[in-house]
Specification:
2 copies of one chain form a homodimer.
Chain A lengths: L2 H25 L6 H8 L3 H7 L3 H23 L1 H9 L5 H13 L1 H8 L3 H16 L9 H20 L6 H12 L3
Chain lengths: 183, 183
Amino acid sequence: MPKVSEAHRSERREQILDGARRVFSQHGYFGTNVAMLEAEIGLSRGAIFNYFAGKLDLFTAIAREDKNRFGQVWLDDGYDALVRLIGEDPEWIGVYLEIGRLLRTDPVLRERWSDLTEDIQERIVQRYVELQRTGEIRDDLSFETVLRFLGVVLDGLVVQQGAGFPIDVEGTLELVRSALSPK
Amino acid sequence: MPKVSEAHRSERREQILDGARRVFSQHGYFGTNVAMLEAEIGLSRGAIFNYFAGKLDLFTAIAREDKNRFGQVWLDDGYDALVRLIGEDPEWIGVYLEIGRLLRTDPVLRERWSDLTEDIQERIVQRYVELQRTGEIRDDLSFETVLRFLGVVLDGLVVQQGAGFPIDVEGTLELVRSALSPK
């Protein structure tokens, strides 16, 4: 395939994901129809669904991209940076909120979702295993328990920020540090 | 109004709320239509909307009832009991997940929602002010920070449980205790 065409495809794909993210974030998955996607993206349904098989595929691709970005910030800049990012109420929060409901009612999606980001998750796990090994965080609990707790706090922050209640970024971080500090 | 009629009204109201909760929890707010409500509740739309002005009113009444019950468990049995209750994946989790999305897109609902449960909230605040005063939890942070943190953890647990990822109840409680323990 010629290079220019691939670059074009990749650009188009990003254009579709960005526009669709804005629509889903504002109207939710069920509140979004194809006409809204066309209007916001600026492409016809034919063009859009040339890149994604359907609405659920498009939504899953966005959720996957956002979750990967989320994990990448955690890896590159640390947990605190991720919490501060949530405090800025980024666009993807609306999509993130919606995925919870969809996962609840769609076991197939749930299966696919768990497998989405194995590589990044694995590297986050390694990070925390190492933090326990060097004594920077408590090691009397399993790394699964520690990571699940950190995930719970992130999800809770996303819900509150997403619902329009401003979150207490620094207070949360202080309490998380205190939860994880070695006994 | 004769007493029997009031008892009847109250019973009907509960019947409507219980049936509607099951429908909303499974299909979400936008996925629920009047025919589904009629079928699950076993009453006609005329009868249902004699008690509630519309779908949003009905949904808000359920969310309010659930939030009050949630707060009441916290007051009566403590935070740990509430976390354990979430671990049992109660019916209301689906509704709770949905309210976040609605609050995000509907400022009028958000206004109403904040005022829903002032009395219970006030008593929970008193509880934590007292726990700080007696030194049972750290008092170097404001009670607002402490309570928001506890709320974030609850919301995060609800999201994860609601999405079908089993939660680590005892590990979470241990980390929360450690976060709040006096320095």
